[in-house]
């Protein structure tokens, strides 16, 4: 996704000494410290203490990886943090995709649909609106801005039950739109784009384009959107992860498994194993969990700097 | 677009026409609305309307005699007299006061360590500690739920291999702590990065000045670093308020593994969810959801005001 991201030259914000300006707004985060050169001594105690936290962070993931290679009986009989002898990861993956007529693959496609339409749509709406708020003056702007900023504080989970109640009275539940429509709104994404636009879309440039006769839509797509691209990608990442990980909303909205995303489907399988007469399929739940987190972890690792810039904007908020 | 042809026309005329310029300006007054409109339409439909509808629902009651009738504040009065609601609320308050300080202390420590320049392989630590945040909370709860299992989980393994007797983390005494551990695991690195990002914005001249003054590492932390990350800390705290008071995913997932220790009213959100599904008590569920939304916002607001006020001092 980062491919094709233009390097932005922001006027009024010259690069930091001895360092090329990075494209996102948090280039300050990357500047080397003079302090570092003066005190090169590394602390073993500090590193060891952080090592403990690192082990804590990794153990469950390692457990998941190891146990995705075991058969259901070996899962119960072998030590959790080591391989059981028969390495059946591939069999488990095949079984995960074929169990219940390929339900898992279906849920994966549903999740992708929710991510593409929900997160993609949320990012586009937030970008249009954030740019509109940052670069235009119009009657009622202040009130709208205050309302949207207030909405940032409303927790998504608090909205799930009210949204379900309204959607069910409209007969909208149990279909893909019940999941997609609520995820189209990202007040935080709008806020992020607004800060980006204030910082990196110069009013003079827009005025110059207007004087040259460019229409507002053309100005947005050819000038503003390019300048906003780093913010756009950051918001896209946040909304993609939010929709990929979404659980409460689809759980409450969907009653039959046709439209389940991966998260709801996996817990459905896990619950099935404990129900009376249910066949335990923990090996599939574990392999399915692994398959669910791999894409998102890879996305995280590839797009680190965008995360960092989004988090910085978040911390400026308070 | 007509705006562009108009702009072009204005530009072509050698002497700017004042009335055309004013018309253009008038038109531009509303262009901002055009950019905002798609967002606002969905905002009203998916965010504002549900809240209004839930408030409306919360003032009605389904009665055996008379059907659906206006009930004033009856649902709210019932909520504040409902022991099930109080036990749910008490649990998330306890969760907030125990889990959040532990998690934020660890995050703060990790952020200071990352920023200290005395840590080896800081990039490795930064990325790895943040990684659990990418794991969906359902998967995190499933994974930890299996690990907690006393028969095939890691806890069971440790007990049988080393002859230990670690008590069942999913027993009723420990299950809240078990959830606290999952939340700490998931959000430690996220909060660490929020604080670390704030630390990186401290101008290096401050450190140089402290160095000249002969300040030690702990003095630098107290006088420069802690004040610098206060607003980031407040943000992390507000996210934690929301996370605690709106706790749902972890208990609901662990419930499939420990149905007897996690009741349907374990947290207020679970209570509202189960009221609307198992009980079909939509009006009461709406009232509970609104009460919890208001409580969450009040606590978040108090945290923010206190945090900001201290900053001014």
From TrEMBL, chain B:
UniProt xrefs under PANTHER family: BLL4140 PROTEIN (PTHR43227), DIACETYLCHITOBIOSE UPTAKE SYSTEM PERMEASE PROTEIN DASB (PTHR43227:SF8)
Organism: Herbiconiux daphne
Keywords: Cell membrane, Membrane, Transmembrane, Transmembrane helix, Transport
Membrane topology recorded in Swiss-Prot or TrEMBL: Multi-pass membrane protein
PROSITE patterns: ABC_TM1
InterPro entries tied to this protein: MetI-like, MetI-like_sf, UgpAE/MalFG_permease
UniProt name for this protein: Sugar ABC transporter permease
Transmembrane segments annotated in the record for this chain: 30-56, 92-112, 124-150, 170-190, 228-248, 282-303
CDD domains reported in the protein's UniProt record: TM_PBP2
Cell compartments where the protein resides: Cell membrane
SUPFAM superfamilies: MetI-like
Residue ranges constituting the ABC transmembrane type-1 domain according to the UniProt record: 89-303
């Amino acid at each position: 996704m980062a491919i094709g991201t233009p390097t932005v030259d922001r006027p009024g914000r010259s690069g930091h000494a001895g360092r090329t300006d990075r494209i996102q707004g948090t280039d300050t985060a990357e500047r080397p410290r003079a302090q570092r050169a003066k005190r090169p001594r590394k602390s073993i105690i500090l590193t060891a203490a952080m090592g403990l936290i690192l082990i804590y962070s990794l153990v469950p993931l390692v457990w998941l990886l190891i146990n995705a290679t075991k058969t259901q009986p070996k899962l119960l009989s072998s030590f959790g943090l080591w391989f059981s002898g028969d390495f059946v990861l591939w069999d488990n993956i095949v079984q995960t995709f074929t169990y219940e007529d390929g339900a898992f693959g279906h849920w994966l496609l549903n999740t992708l649909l929710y991510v593409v339409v929900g997160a993609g749509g949320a990012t586009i709406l937030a970008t249009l609106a954030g740019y509109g708020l940052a670069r235009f003056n119009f009657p009622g702007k202040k009130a709208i801005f205050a309302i949207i900023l207030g909405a940032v504080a409303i927790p998504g989970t608090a909205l799930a039950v009210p949204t379900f109640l309204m959607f069910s009275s409209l007969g909208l539940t149990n279909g893909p739109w019940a999941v997609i429509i609520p995820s189209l709104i990202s007040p935080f994404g709008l806020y992020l784009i607004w800060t980006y636009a204030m910082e990196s879309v110069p009013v003079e440039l827009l005025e110059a384009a207007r004087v040259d006769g460019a229409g507002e839509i053309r100005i947005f797509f050819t000038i503003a959107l390019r300048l906003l691209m780093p913010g756009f990608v950051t918001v896209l990442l946040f909304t993609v992860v939010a929709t990929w990980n979404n659980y409460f909303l689809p759980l409450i909205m969907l009653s039959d498994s046709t439209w389940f995303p991966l998260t709801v489907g996996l817990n459905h399988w896990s619950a099935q194993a404990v129900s009376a007469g249910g066949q335990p399929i923990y090996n599939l739940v574990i392999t399915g969990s692994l398959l669910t987190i791999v894409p998102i972890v890879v996305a995280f690792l590839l797009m680190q700097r965008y995360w960092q810039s989004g988090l910085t904007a978040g911390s400026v908020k308070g | 677009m007509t705006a562009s042809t108009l702009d072009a026309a204005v530009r072509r005329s050698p002497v700017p026409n004042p009335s055309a310029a004013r018309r253009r300006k008038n038109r531009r007054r509303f262009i901002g609305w055009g950019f905002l409109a798609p967002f606002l339409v969905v905002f009203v439909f998916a965010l504002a309307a549900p809240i209004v509808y839930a408030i409306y629902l919360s003032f009605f009651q389904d009665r055996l005699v008379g059907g659906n009738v206006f009930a004033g504040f009856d649902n709210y009065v019932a909520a504040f007299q409902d022991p099930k609601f109080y036990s749910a609320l008490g649990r998330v308050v306890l969760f907030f006061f125990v889990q959040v300080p532990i998690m934020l202390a660890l995050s703060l420590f990790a952020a200071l360590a990352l920023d200290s320049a005395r840590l080896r392989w800081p990039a490795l630590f930064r990325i790895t500690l943040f990684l659990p945040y990418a794991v969906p909370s359902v998967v995190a709860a499933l994974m930890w739920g299996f690990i907690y299992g006393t028969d095939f989980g890691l806890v069971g393994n440790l007990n049988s291999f080393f002859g230990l007797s670690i008590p069942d983390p999913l027993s009723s005494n420990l299950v809240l702590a078990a959830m606290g551990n999952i939340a700490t695991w998931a959000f430690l690195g996220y909060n660490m990065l929020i604080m670390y990002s704030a630390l990186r914005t401290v101008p290096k001249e401050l450190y140089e000045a402290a160095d000249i003054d002969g300040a030690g590492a702990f003095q630098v932390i107290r006088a420069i670093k802690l004040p610098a990350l206060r607003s980031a800390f407040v943000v992390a705290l507000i996210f934690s308020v929301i996370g605690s008071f709106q706790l749902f995913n972890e208990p609901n997932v662990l419930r499939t593994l420990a149905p007897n220790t996690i009741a349907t009213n374990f947290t207020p959100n679970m209570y509202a969810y189960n009221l609307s599904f198992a009980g079909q008590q939509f009006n009461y569920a709406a009232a509970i959801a609104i009460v919890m939304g208001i409580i969450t916002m009040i606590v978040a607001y108090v945290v923010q005001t206190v945090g900001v006020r201290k900053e001014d001092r």
